[in-house]
Design brief:
By secondary structure, the chain is α/β, with parallel strands linked by helices. It contains 22 helices and 23 strands. The strands form five sheets. The protein has an eight-stranded mixed beta barrel, surrounded by five helices. It starts with 16 loop residues before the first strand and ends in a 17-residue tail after the last helix. InterPro entries: Biofilm_reg_signaling, CheY-like_superfamily, EAL_dom, EAL_sf, GGDEF_dom, Nucleotide_cyclase, Rev_trsase/Diguanyl_cyclase, Sig_transdc_resp-reg_receiver.
Length: 595
């Protein structure tokens, strides 16, 4: 595979043994050079002799050569032209020493322009001068080769870097344009690599990148190219996949599957068992005339789509993705200013006791009052906030608001806040949260963080550690959307949850079939047996309420009792309840406000 990672020069080797080929048609000149070689003591020489440029190029193709020595004129051939042809045919890394009979400035300039490293006057050359010239020429070329290699290869993994990738990709695009065959660009991003760096250190992270590079490099064909694009991002370039798009996609999918497999296989690094995965964005191209930067952008967009689809996925670029990206960029730009402009607001949805529907707690639900779009639901902007690293600032602001609400609503047992995995697993999350709690003088036992299964299953060990840290400081946790994933019971058993929230999808038909009721009853019984508080989400009818109460569900939340409302509205609602005034919004006409 053409990834440049095999044996590039990283330092200048000592010059102890030199393989020299002499291009000369005059035996007397050969004897002269041989005498120079024989008179040198600092280097072991291997001298080969050819008599024509054709023989020279054949020799260079098949034999390892450290330097070429030739006369200014070889028969009717010009030594300067031969040196120039060497560079044109890919042998520019081999130093050339030119012998002349007289000092000539024009020859000197022409020789340097052709790539000749040094030239010597025959009559003045001694063995020591010849040896010194060879040392200088070889060292200079090796230095040039090392600098060139380092400029085009990644220093950590040895793979091609962005500059060399650009050269390969431009050649691939030109070939695709000529032949009409499909080529493919795969943009690979490691999933959860930041967690490895944060928990095990950057040294382990670097070792992981090296091993990932080695595994990916072992996939594919000789003409394929693997490059490190930066950080934990790699690019895999495939060429000549045929003119049939379906067959080309099939071939690319096979390679993508192999990449995912070798990436998911655990790595043993300094006694650590490290597990990661990767998301892959793919763009196919043939003769559509796309620009270099456009192909990278397309594969990058497809990679983010793969991440949003659940990570450890491969996704082909389609035009609609770019339209989505444009919309996302506009939303992200507005979202960056939303906090500064006070466009975000924390609504509260009360949680009531199943026995008498008295208020017990509330969940914070974020709303964005966009100046042009109107009220924007979290389902429309949280994904962008997470993807473009805005979620941390937003959620910290929400936690501050929740603490203020708790201090002003002493009648509530707790207020819950939804926390994203990106924020929760940050190394500084515990300290930042406790700093907010202390600064607001809030009782941490009244603050509950809601976490979902999909957030936790990626790093349950890290989540457990973080939860124990916060639990020791009084903060409690709720497992949100219980039952919607495959690992809910595992998480309930192994992580320190105080509260379980049964997902609305199970509540919707709890009153419609005995099987649904039995299933919900089993969740309630399991949670109660583990000493956890059970909350049923999305309760909308009296029939649902009656069944949940009969099955001993502790707390209830939904439009049956109250819809999400502003803080001031919630204060009024609580005051009305304190006066024993029941408020049941008309479910048939209530506007559904999804979290």
């Amino acid at each position: 595979m053409d990834n440049g990672a095999s044996s590039g020069p990283t330092e200048i080797e000592p010059i102890d043994m030199v393989r020299v080929v002499l291009l000369e048609d005059d035996p007397a000149c050969y004897e002269f050079v041989h005498s120079l070689v024989a008179g040198s003591y600092g280097i072991d020489f291997y001298l080969d002799w050819v008599t024509s440029s054709a023989d020279l190029f054949d020799h260079l193709e098949h034999e390892t050569t450290d330097a070429v020595v030739m006369d200014c004129h070889v028969g009717k051939e010009c030594g300067v032209n031969i040196a120039r042809n060497m560079a044109d045919r890919g042998f520019q890394h081999i130093p050339v020493i030119l012998f002349t009979d007289v000092t000539d400035r024009d020859i000197d300039l022409a020789a340097m322009d052709a790539g000749v490293t040094d030239y010597l006057i025959k009559q003045e050359t001694t063995a020591s001068m010849f040896e010194r010239s060879l040392r200088y020429a070889i060292r200079q070329k090796r230095t040039e080769a090392m600098v060139s290699y380092q400029a085009l290869h990644d220093g950590l993994t040895g793979l091609a870097n962005r500059s060399l990738l650009q050269e390969h990709l431009k050649r691939s695009m030109a070939e695709a344009d000529r032949s009409g065959q499909f080529h493919a660009l795969l943009f690979i991003d490691l999933d959860n690599f930041k967690t490895v760096n944060d928990t095990l250190g950057h040294s382990i992270g670097d070792d992981l990148l090296v091993e990932v590079a080695q595994r990916i490099s072992g996939i594919g064909r000789k003409e394929d190219v693997v490059a490190r694009f930066g950080g934990d991002e790699f690019v895999f370039l495939m060429g000549n996949l045929g003119a049939n798009e379906s067959e080309a996609k099939h071939a690319v999918n096979r390679v993508a599957s192999k990449i995912k497999h070798v990436t998911c296989t655990p790595f043993d690094i300094e006694e650590h068992n490290v597990t990661v995965a990767c998301s892959i964005g793919i763009t196919l191209f043939n003769s559509d005339g796309a620009a270099f930067s456009e192909l990278l952008k397309q594969s990058d967009i497809a990679m983010y789509k793969a991440k949003n689809d659940g990570k450890n996925q491969a996704c082909f670029f389609v035009d609609e993705m770019e339209k989505t990206l444009v919309r996302d960029m506009a939303m992200v730009a507005d979202l960056r200013q939303a906090l500064e402009r006070n466009e975000l607001e924390c609504f509260l949805q009360p949680i009531v006791c199943a026995d008498d529907t008295s208020p017990v707690a509330a969940e914070v639900l974020l709303r964005w009052h966009h100046p042009q779009l109107g009220d924007v639901m979290p389902t429309q902007f949280i994904r962008c906030a997470e993807q473009y690293n805005l979620i941390v600032g937003i959620e910290q602001w929400v936690i501050r608001q929740a603490c203020l609400f708790l201090n002003r609503l002493p009648e509530l047992e707790f207020i819950s806040v939804n926390i994203s995995a990106r924020h929760f697993l940050r190394p500084d999350f515990t300290d930042v949260v406790y700093g907010i709690v202390c600064a607001s003088q809030t009782d941490p036992r009244r603050l509950v963080f809601e976490l979902t299964e999909t957030q936790l299953i990626e790093d349950s060990a890290g989540a457990r550690f973080k939860m124990m840290e916060l639990a020791q400081r009084g903060i409690r946790f709720a497992l949100d959307d219980f039952g919607t994933g495959y690992s809910s019971v595992y998480l309930l058993k192994n992580l320190p949850f105080d509260i379980v929230k049964i997902d609305k999808s199970f509540i919707d038909d709890v009153h419609l079939s005995k099987a649904s009721e039995t299933f919900v009853a089993a969740i309630i019984a399991m949670g109660r047996a583990l000493g956890q508080t059970i909350i049923a989400e999305g309760v909308e009818t009296e029939a649902q309420h009656a069944i949940l109460n009969r099955r001993h569900c502790t707390l209830l939340q939904g439009f049956r009792y109250a819809y999400p409302m502003s803080f001031d509205e919630c204060v009024g609602w609580l005051n009305d309840r304190a006066d024993d005034t029941l408020v049941h919004p008309d479910i048939s006409t209530a506007v559904r406000l999804n979290r």
